[in-house]
């Protein structure tokens, strides 16, 4: 299995292109099950995207990626998208409706096929995603919404069996602003008969990107990005070409890297507004960010200050940035605290960071960080996508050599992160685990 070998302490300088958003690309790709055809650009070359394309092909869709992925052919230029700039999807001649366990278990976002399959094929058989390391992550809110829209749902042998005579627009009030739940319901409502209103909807930028894409295809959606979204069902969707938004969590990860070690780092192909909560936290810790059109420049914080934060649904500080901010808190002057309000068990990376010399205590959903640590390199184990990113950042600032193992986690959500960091001056290499 792959690992990263990092030698810490090397300053970062230069410009890095932020890739397309995993969490915008996935729902947009799954919406292809609503029928018709479209093409996309700025789709990131990630394991989760490849898993999604595999599942969509198994569900009968025709997919072409042109030109072939550049990473294998022309080598890597960190300023250019690794992957092709054109991905085309269209309906095939078959319309199966089963998402098998062996794919769903590797990527819980596969549940995003439920809404579009019900809307278009009136049938779906999807393996229950099961829990994952960061929490139970049930999908009860998705299923209750589909039942309100006229789906009949049973669960047998670990599979969700859903069918409908035709979805009806409905009033859906979400107990919690679930991100993929909002996306699933929105996609189901696009072809439903009548109007659907989602209240207490999630407001993430990726939901706005999905809505913008569907509206570009002729869907009738208003209110995306607010807590109330209204969808009036249409008969069909039109072809379109669309470019996926940038990945705000990758952008946030590189902003923290810059705050840790940047002489002067510029991230480009970004907008600042989706990054506001991350920029606010970094500024409160002492960072000075220069906001340009389409780019942000940040240098290392000379004497980072500790602070307290809570992870919250957008526009709050994202839970997907919690692991990444901890190394900066660990070395800051003064204490910090992080309350994780979104997931029930998202601190597995803390034990590994403490092995590197951080001083973090977990009390229930709160991490108490004693600042002033000097991190030391160590062999550490990645446990999930964002924990991996946090450990890489810790390795960049640690004294000596760090080996981050199980980096297949990080490949799920970051496009060649080691090559982008190396191009900025980091000493980081991808190796086979246990290689000398
Ligand atoms: C999305 O997951 C993201 N994934 C996650 O990013 C992100 O961490 C999360 O939103 C929160 O922002 C994608 O967009 C593909 P939720 P999702 O439904 O939709 C509970 C990453 O690193 N809940 O908003 O699964 C749930 O247990 C990934 O890119 C229910 O109880 O998150 C959790 O505690 C990790 N019942 C909370 O709500 C439900 O039916 C938030 O979950 C649905 C959710």
UniProtKB/TrEMBL annotation:
InterPro entries according to UniProt: Enolpyruvate_Tfrase_dom, Enolpyruvate_Tfrase_sf, MurA_subfamily, RNA3'P_cycl/enolpyr_Trfase_a/b, UDP_GlcNAc_COvinyl_MurA
Name by which UniProt lists this protein: UDP-N-acetylglucosamine 1-carboxyvinyltransferase
Positions of UDP-N-acetyl-alpha-D-glucosamine binding: 108, 320, 342
Residues annotated as transmembrane: none
Domain Enolpyruvate transferase: 8-421
CDD domains tied to this protein: UdpNAET
Documented EC number(s): 2.5.1.7
Residues that bear 2-(S-cysteinyl)pyruvic acid O-phosphothioketal: 132
Gene name as annotated: murA
Function: Cell wall formation. Adds enolpyruvyl to UDP-N-acetylglucosamine.
Phylogenetic lineage: Bacteria, Pseudomonadati, Nitrospirota, Nitrospiria, Nitrospirales
Pfam families the record matches: EPSP_synthase
A single BP term in Gene Ontology: cell wall organization
SUPFAM superfamilies associated with the record: EPT/RTPC-like (SSF55205)
Class of enzymatic activity (EC top level): transferase
């Amino acid at each position: 299995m792959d690992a990263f070998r990092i030698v810490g302490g090397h300053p970062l300088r230069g410009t890095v292109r932020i890739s397309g958003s995993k969490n915008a690309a996935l729902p947009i790709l799954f919406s292809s099950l609503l029928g018709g055809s479209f093409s996309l650009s700025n789709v990131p070359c990630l394991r989760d995207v490849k898993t999604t394309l595999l599942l969509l092909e198994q569900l009968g869709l025709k997919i072409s990626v042109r030109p072939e992925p550049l990473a294998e052919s022309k080598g890597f230029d960190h300023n250019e998208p690794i992957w092709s700039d054109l991905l085309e999807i269209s309906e095939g001649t078959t319309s199966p409706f089963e998402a098998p366990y062996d794919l769903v278990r590797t990527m819980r976002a596969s549940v995003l096929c439920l809404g579009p399959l019900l809307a278009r094929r009136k049938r779906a058989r999807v393996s229950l995603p099961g829990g994952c390391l960061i929490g139970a992550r049930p999908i009860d809110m998705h299923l209750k919404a589909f039942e309100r829209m006229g789906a009949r749902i049973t669960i047998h042998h670990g599979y969700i069996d859903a069918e409908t005579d035709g979805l009806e627009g409905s009033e859906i009030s979400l107990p919690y602003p679930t991100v993929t739940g909002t996306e699933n319901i929105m996609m189901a409502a696009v072809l439903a008969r009548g109007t659907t209103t989602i209240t207490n909807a999630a407001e993430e930028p990726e939901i706005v990107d999905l809505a913008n894409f569907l509206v570009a295809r002729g869907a009738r959606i208003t209110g995306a990005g607010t807590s109330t979204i209204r969808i009036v069902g249409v008969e069909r969707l039109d072809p379109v070409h669309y470019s996926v938004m940038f990945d705000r969590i990758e952008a946030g990860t590189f902003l923290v890297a810059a705050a840790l070690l940047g002489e002067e780092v510029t991230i480009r192909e970004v907008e600042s507004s989706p990054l506001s909560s991350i920029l606010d936290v970094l500024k409160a810790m002492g960072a000075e960010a220069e906001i340009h059109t389409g780019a942000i420049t940040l240098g290392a914080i000379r004497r980072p200050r500790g602070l307290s934060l809570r992870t919250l649904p957008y526009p709050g500080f994202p839970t997907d940035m919690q692991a990444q901010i901890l190394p900066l808190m660990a070395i800051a002057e003064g204490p910090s605290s992080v309350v994780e309000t979104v997931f029930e068990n998202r601190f597995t990376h803390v034990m590994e960071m403490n092995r590197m010399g951080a001083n973090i205590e977990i009390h229930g959903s709160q991490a108490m960080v004693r600042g002033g640590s000097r991190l030391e390199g160590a062999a550490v184990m990645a446990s999930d996508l964002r924990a991996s990113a946090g450990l890489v950042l810790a390795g960049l600032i640690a004294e000596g050599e760090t080996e981050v193992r199980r980096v297949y986690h990080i490949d799920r959500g970051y496009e060649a992160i080691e090559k982008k960091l190396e191009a900025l001056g980091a000493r980081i290499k991808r190796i086979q685990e246990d290689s000398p």
